[in-house]
Write a structure and sequence with these properties.
This protein is α/β, with parallel strands linked by helices. The chain is 48% helix and 12% strand. α4 runs parallel beside α5, α5 runs parallel beside α6 and α10 packs antiparallel against α11. The protein starts with a strand and ends in a 5-residue tail after the last helix.
Amino acid sequence: MSAQRIDVDAHYFGGSVAALTRAKGLPTALAAASWTPQGALAAMDRHQVATQVLSVPFTATSKGQDAGFARTLCRRINEELAELTEQHPGRFGAFASLPGDDTETMLDELAYALDTLHLDGVSLTSNVAGHYLGSPMLEPVLAELDRRRMPVHIHPADCAHAAELALGRPASLVEFSFDTARNITNALYRGVFLRHPGLRLILSHLGGPLPALAWRIAACTAVSTGPQDTPLTPQHVHDELRGLYYDTAMAGGPHSLLPALQVTGIDHILFGTDAAAAPEPLIADAISELTSTLTGPDLQAVERDNALRLFPRLA
């Protein structure tokens, strides 16, 4: 088959990201040390990927750094991403990185990345320096993303208690995915989707356990509302989960895909690989699982057509 897939869950580990991970000894240092545009393009060709929409899978903050560190880092990352999209038209898109220090710096970088650099959307992590969707810090950012109707990729991240919850294992094994479910559940109960109905959220890894928990989350709305929560109905929960987008990164098989298709339609499933973060053999296995589970028009929709509705520039 010719390359046609649009990968919405692929990671940029070049330039400023590589320098940061090496300097800090972060877990992504190994991937960053080997990431190049040429290597990424070669891997894309091996897996029939026409385009990767690149993102950085962490939120930069200035905690423990000089003031303005996160703002400067995100500016460099976003300018590097814009340069990549210009140098390789049609092969790369990009989600903007936003600094996680405060609302004002997030909004400033959002405007620069979208209005000046013309990136394709925004990347947020499942918690932004401990702030989940529904936090007052993020409200103005969500309002602006709602106004712009821009795609927002939500990638999992460590929660504040990841070390204890992971029981000595890598947080990426299961805890990352649970943080996605925690984030969206909080957003539902805090009324985020009622206040910002135009949000276009893409959940990495098919939302982790969220689809499997959807019925439970909806059924318990009458008994699980806290003092700061918005009254909900089960139908609202089902409607909002139906409107989210879910990508197949490391989740291409029926164990993940079929629960997701119980909460949304095939038109809201997007192709993803977790490229540069996941080993290439695992990516190949996940793609094989996906193409064994879906065929024909459904597979075409997931691999390309659904993404083109969110990112028409990539056509």
